[in-house]
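Sharing a chain and its predicted structure for anyone who wants a worked example. Both blocks are below, sequence first, tokens second.
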Amino acid sequence: MALAFIFSFLPLPNPAPTPTEMTTPTALITGGAKRIGAQMARAFAKAGWHVIIHYGHSREDAERLAATLPSAETAPCDLADGDAAVAMVQRLSDTHPHLRLLVNSAAVFRYDGADAIDPAIFAEAMQVNAQTPARMAQAFLKGVAGRTVINMLDMKLANPNPDFFSYTMAKHALSSTVRMLAMAYPAQRIYGLAPGAMMPSWDQQPDEHLTSGRMNLLQRLTDPVELADAALFLADGVLASGETLFIDSGQFLLSQPRDVLYLARA
């Protein structure tokens, strides 16, 4: 009887948490189905985040990746439609109370040169690479404290060349929003991440990438994992808001007259 009396006062096991009681931090990663975005998704999922993988035209890749992660889902949206992108951010904010991070990783990368801007390429680059991520950041930061935005930029900000002219202009435009938004939203965090040559791009062949990827001060290939690790560091919010980190093995400190994919061919 005495033993039964003692057991009657032992605490019962806690019931499984309901979805509304879960406190897992959530990250929305645009362009998260492929390349750098997918690397980010894997890193944040491994670190215990719930990951929302945004995709434009890569549904199968997004769903395949989400199925391999501990906690993930997908969200389609054409970032050429800025209103739809803002609506996606607002909808996900309503349905995910622990949405804490937006990584603006999606971008278009098409060639035009300094001799003549291609109007269609320019319009698409400025929309997808600058205006839409800026609007998404504004919608994400507005009205909710404790949030962080990471804008994916490019080491071309410090080491420019005339190739991919409209793309580079758009990345400069997006870069300018980092400090402005940091000033406008002092209770939040906004950062820039500027990678260098890291993965094969445009029409590069594997051997060309091995050459161009080493065109930096350290003469080494920069692992995309390093970029993901930097994003995880920024997500902790310990760095002053408004700062940009270059993850490129020192490529941004050089002066290269052309994009390294063409320098490698030369």
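Comments welcome. The mean pLDDT is 91.
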